[in-house]
Write a structure and sequence with these properties.
Layout lengths: L29 H18 L7 H25 L7 H19 L6 H18 L24 H9 L18 H15 L2 H16 L6 H14 L4 H17 L14 H7 L1 H14 L12 H18 L1
């Protein structure tokens, strides 16, 4: 088994006091890293049981651990420090990352891809270890805590702009009491998209599609109806590309002119826009283009995908039923 020095490249504050937190969940190639990280977390979950259990119990714990890793890491990245009441939680998070590292490095073969994952995870662990102590009291992690969009961050600004048609008081804040029911549903969807694992989401779609294709006794019409229902249910993955492309636009607008780097969940973009109002206008225009926003301010991302699905299955039913 390859031995690794997990104390390489510790994170420290620079002379200006900036803490360069490195977050594995924001690494450019994290999409490729995720399956390796997920497999390691699953092994950690499996080792947590002292006796044999059903696979579904292991999967549930693995999902909970992975969510805890990401949400807690992003919290400490936003804080750029830890509060005294968070010391135990911070240490437990460090131990969890250490355990994940040990599982990954225990592989028989360590290629360049695995080394990249080890580096990214370890830099995140060291970022947590080196967090400076803050004064006051901070929130502790709770798996039951509602996911929310952090004011000023990328997803929040997207939601704020797209919710404009649904604000009861047009110049008011993006708060539940100032948003109509339809607007609250829109914000809820965007919050879900912000935290969704799109790879796992599409895997669920393919699994359901495979089950339909292998189901016996269906008429041709029933078969196409169920396939269409499956595609419509998961058609909102169109938002994944739109949100990713718009974040790329935002990065091009801000980096490196207005900031050194940009994180999708942590950077307070609102503060940058307050210093550069012209860039805010440019971002808003890009958003309207990407989300196909009409003159009333309503987005139409789903219109074409749903139309294409309907036309495809209308053709199948007309020609094969």
């Amino acid at each position: 088994m390859t031995e690794f020095n997990y104390q390489l490249n510790p994170v420290q504050s620079d002379p200006s006091g900036h803490y360069d937190f490195q977050n594995v969940f924001d690494f450019p190639d994290f999409v490729e890293m995720r399956p390796i990280l997920r497999a390691a977390v699953r092994e950690v979950a499996k080792e947590a049981f002292n006796e044999p259990v059903l696979p579904v119990q292991i999967e549930r714990m693995a999902t909970a651990l992975e969510e805890q890793l990401e949400r807690s890491t992003r919290k400490y990245e936003r804080q750029a420090g830890y509060y005294p009441n968070q010391l135990k939680e911070k240490n437990e998070l460090t131990r969890l990352f250490t355990h994940v590292l040990q599982v990954i490095s225990a592989r028989d073969e360590i290629d360049q891809e695995i080394e990249d994952v080890i580096y990214a995870v370890n830099q995140t662990r060291l970022s947590i270890v080196g967090l400076p102590k803050l004064e006051g009291e901070g929130p502790l992690y709770s798996p039951d805590q509602d996911q929310e969009l952090l004011p000023g961050t990328y997803y929040y600004l997207v939601a704020k702009e797209l919710a404009r048609p649904y604000l009861k008081e047009p110049n008011g804040q993006l708060v539940p009491e100032n948003v109509t029911k339809k607007g609250r549903e829109l914000v809820l969807h965007l919050t879900t998209y912000a935290y969704r694992d799109w790879d796992a989401y599409l895997t669920h779609q393919y699994d359901e599609q495979h089950a339909i294709e292998n189901q016996k006794g269906l008429t041709n019409r029933e078969y196409y109806d169920r396939l269409e229902e499956n595609e419509r249910r998961y058609a909102d993955h169109a938002y994944a590309d739109v949100l990713a492309d718009l974040f790329g636009d935002l990065t091009d607008l801000l980096v490196p002119t207005y900031c050194d780097h940009l994180t999708i969940m942590g950077t307070n973009v609102e503060e940058i826009f307050n210093r550069a109002p012209l860039v805010r206008l440019q971002f808003t225009q890009k958003l309207r283009e990407r989300f196909l926003v009409d003159e009333q301010g309503v987005e139409h991302v789903m219109d074409q995908p749903l139309k294409d699905i309907a036309q495809k299955y209308d053709f199948y039913r007309a020609n094969f039923c």
